[in-house]
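Q&A log
Question type: sequence-to-structure
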Amino acid sequence: MEKEKFNQSKYNYGWQKENMLSVSVRYNKEFVQQFREALDKLGLKQSDVFRKAMQEVIDKAKD
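Response status: OK
Response body:
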């Protein structure tokens, strides 16, 4: 009897489904373009800015 091969994609999908959530927002095109330009100018990643802002809200709520 052959062993079933490990399916990394299937594992990742299952793990993400169990452990991750996404946040989605929509803003005016011009506003988003300005934000992206600011990120480029400052050398920042969108995800890092969002994470920091979210963590600040969490921390503030704990106080």
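Response note: Residues 26-63 form one domain.
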